[in-house]
Amino acid sequence: MAGGSEKKSSEDANDLQTFNAENLQSNMKVIYYSRTFLSIIGGVIAGILGFTGLTGFIFYFLIMAITSIGLIAKAKFSVHSYFDSWNRIILDGFFGGLMSFVLFWTFAYDIVHIF
Amino acid sequence: MGLGFLIGAFGVLILAHAAFSTIQYRGLLKILEEEFSGPPVNVIVELLLALSFCMWAALTAAGKFLSVHHHSEENRIVSLPANMDFLIFNHRGKVFSPGTDMRLKH
Question: Where are its TM segments located (chain B) (predicted)?
Fold first, then answer.
């Protein structure tokens, strides 16, 4: 409690933009959770649909774009009260999700179309 | 939390059913000796349903966003200690109070 009020008064004193690091970390965790889950689901869907090559990667971009829009809607369109920059909500977790996507894409494609 | 997980599990079940239907459809095509051009309509409808269910689950089951600003409404400390009656301000420490008072005013 004392730390919080001290921080607040110091913020008022030199007018420096500070963020609540714990809450920012928790928001990032929510974003990673959503992106990982949706890239796995998107991979399975791309595999069942039988996408090969570039089509699947375009499908991944589509899924991630829809996810970003969903996350922005979840943040009630005021991104700066929950994150410090737009990159957090649009780019973070993109390449990690791509790995999961390719793994489950090939997995579902093999199960449905090859075996 | 619980509802989101249930919806997500239901979406995954629909996905599994869609995969199974596609496998059966491919078996049928093999018997008819035709080429696979795309999954049947009911599979596509199932996939869209599963995608919307899982999207909803991913956006709700992950937890709520918390505000990162110190001065926002939900980050304010509103809970006071339960033993408020025992707080004493009339003690020797009040001699030093002007200094802290000035800082707070600023």
Answer: 42-66
Domains of chain A, residue spans: 24-114
Task: Give contacts of A27 with chain B, Cβ < 8 Å.
Answer: 65-66, 68
CB-facing half-sphere around the CA of B97: CA atoms within 13 A: 7
The DSSP secondary structure of A52-72, one letter per residue, reads: -THHHHHHHHHHHHHHHHHHH
Q: How far apart are CA B77 and CA A7, in angstroms?
A: 13
| Angle at CA of residue A10, ends A6 and A30, nearest 5° | 75
Indicate the Cα dihedral angle A49, A94, B10, A47, nearest 10°.
Answer: 20
Whether B67 contacts chain A with CB within 8 A: yes
User: Tens digits of per-residue pLDDT, B40-93?
Assistant: 899 999 999 999 999 999 999 888 888 888 777 777 766 677 787 888 878 887
Distance from C-alpha of B47 to C-alpha of A50, rounded to nearest angstrom: 12
**In terms of Cα–Cα distance, which of A107, A83, A79, A42 is closest to B58?**
A42
All structural domains of chain B with their residue ranges: 2-61, 73-105
ipTM above 0.90, yes or no: no
